[in-house]
Amino acid sequence: MLIIILLLPASVWGYWVATHEKVTKQALIDATIDQYLKANLNISLTTKINNRLVREWIELGSKWEDDSTRWLAHFYDPTTGKGLWGSAVPSIIWGKDYYENVWSWAKARDYYYIALTHTDTTVRETNFAYLFRSLGQVMHLVHDKAVPAHVRNDGHTFGDPYERFVNGRISDANAPLALDGYLPVYSSADTSTFSQFELFWKNNSKGLAEFTNRNFVSRDTNFDDSSYQDYLTPVKTGESIVTETVTDPVDGVMQVEVRYIKGSVADNYHPELSAEISRLSAFSYFDYDINQYDSTFGRVYSLNNSVHEEYAKFLLLKSAFFQYRILVT
């Protein structure tokens, strides 16, 4: 099975390449990093280093982090501290200072030091390029902590439906993804809460992996899955029935009633930003028929694009916020 997976790495990450690039571009704007570079290093995001702009090195780094089999180390479950399948390197270790990762947070600091102190101009420029590429690759890991599958040990060799949805919306100029209504990017420095790299992942319920794991479900860890029954799971607050327009491949456009689970999204870092979510999960198409046949079977849940859009309103902005923190740190 592992051999098959290794032969199909594109199936795992392909849906998020465009998303990583676009979210990184927005984070660079929100973090006002250009002002910092100009004030402290006399360069800017549009300065060319090693034949590429600084901005391009960061953006490309956020894409290149998925090269080869690096995706195996992009998972971290804060309830267990483990990576994918419980055996792969957790991203909290991979991103910080894992010895095989030459684009880690620790290596970025090494590149930064050499770029500032070396007497050879060529060496300095090369290490500046490595620094900005490393920042981009670390930002990619931050993105993935805002994907439920990546923090709930949900391996998705053939693609995750939430990732697929977000990438589709970001790539479709006619259907832009709403990025408002939840989380502004705070401009004030906070050097105490996130004083160490790993605290961005897990931090007394304030880390990004903890936020995503606690408040959202994934395809294989929905409410009818036993994986997280012993842990704090998303909070259900009720149910609702919504009439929605869908397109059936046989019958065409029709109106259907969809039953949803409503929930509460808790933000332990900024409690004032905690909010209700109207579509935390959906009851499966098969839920009614199965329970008519066998009432002891239990409820059957599913995720659809209406759920994914609700998730994105929280998770994309939360991801952008943590990228801002990474950059200013």
Description:
The protein is of the alpha+beta class and about 325 residues long. It has 2 domains: about 1-180 and about 315-329, P1 Nuclease (Orthogonal Bundle), CATH 1.10.575; about 210-305, no CATH class. The chain has 13 helices and 6 strands. It has a 4-stranded antiparallel sheet with strand order 3-4-5-6, covered by helices on one side. The protein has a two-stranded antiparallel sheet with strand order 1-2. Helix 5 packs across helix 8. The longest helix is centred in the middle third of the chain and has 24 residues, at about 120-145. It starts with a helix and ends with a helix. Mean pLDDT is about 85; it is low at about 1-15.
Q: According to CATH, what is the topology of the largest domain?
A: P1 Nuclease
Note the gap between the termini.
40 Å
Mean pLDDT: 83
Report the C-alpha radius of gyration, rounded.
Answer: 21 Å
Strand order of the largest sheet: 3-4-5-6
The portion of residues assigned to helices is 40-55%
How large a portion of the residues is in β-strands, by DSSP E?
Answer: 5-15%
Q: What is the total tally of β strands?
A: 6
Return the string of H and E elements.
Answer: HHHHEEHHHHHHHEEEHEH
Secondary-structure map:
Blueprint: H1 2-6, H2 9-13, H3 17-30, H4 33-41, E1 48-49, E2 52-53, H5 54-64, H6 91-97, H7 105-117, H8 121-144, H9 148-151, H10 161-171, H11 208-215, E3 235-248, E4 252-265, E5 275-283, H12 287-293, E6 301-302, H13 305-328
Antiparallel strand pairs: 1-2, 3-4, 4-5, 5-6
Attribute tags:
329 residues; alpha+beta; P1 Nuclease; 2 domains; 4-stranded antiparallel sheet; two-stranded antiparallel ribbon; 13 helices; 6 strands; disordered N terminus
